[in-house]
């Protein structure tokens, strides 16, 4: 049941006599309480205890402490470089391919590789891959020189 009162937000429910066993009261629905508009009102509300202000220190700022590993990274002096094809390997590869009278493209097709990979190996720009090297040596019928592994530095785990 809705009454036609001045405020559309006030709902009147039937009294206890109309619905026995029910506890109906008048319920007022409205927005949250109004906030103080001036500094004077805010101070008065804060003094009365109705308003409590909590400050968030460093709130909204991306402030992180120094990284734990920052010192380790800065102290790192080793060069991180990939292994490259040695001069002996690329000369042996070119010599074996030319003795078989094959082009780079033909060797690539025989090894099921791209011609650009053969070019990279012959130019010495490729990163050595054991599978590719074994395919090349099988296709050419020659054992190609092994590429030395990186030496471990003391203190490196």
UniProtKB/TrEMBL annotation:
Q: Which residues form the HTH cro/C1-type domain?
A: 93-147
- TM helices/strands, residue ranges: none
* Alphabetical list of SUPFAM superfamilies matching this protein: lambda repressor-like DNA-binding domains
Q: Which UniProt keywords apply?
A: DNA-binding, Transcription, Transcription regulation
- Where is coiled-coil annotated? none
MF terms (GO), sorted A to Z: DNA binding
Q: Which domain of life is it from?
A: Eukaryota
Q: Which InterPro entries match?
A: Cro/C1-type_HTH, Lambda_DNA-bd_dom_sf, MBF1_N
Name this polypeptide is given: HTH cro/C1-type domain-containing protein
Organism equals Amorphochlora amoebiformis
């Amino acid at each position: 049941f809705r009454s036609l009162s001045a405020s559309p937000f006030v709902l009147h429910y039937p009294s206890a006599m109309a619905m026995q066993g029910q506890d109906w009261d008048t319920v007022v629905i409205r927005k949250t309480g109004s906030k103080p508009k001036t500094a004077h009102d805010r101070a008065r509300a804060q003094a009365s205890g109705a308003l409590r202000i909590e400050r968030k220190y460093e709130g909204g700022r991306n402030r992180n402490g120094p990284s734990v590993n920052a010192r380790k990274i800065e102290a790192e002096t080793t060069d991180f470089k990939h292994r490259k094809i040695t001069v002996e390997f690329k000369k042996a590869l070119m010599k074996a391919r030319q003795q078989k009278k094959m082009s780079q493209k033909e060797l690539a097709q025989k090894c099921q590789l791209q011609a650009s990979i053969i070019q990279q190996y012959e130019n010495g720009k490729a990163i050595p891959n054991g599978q590719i090297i074994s395919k090349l040596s099988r296709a050419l019928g020659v054992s190609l020189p092994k590429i030395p592994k990186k030496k471990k530095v003391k203190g490196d785990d």
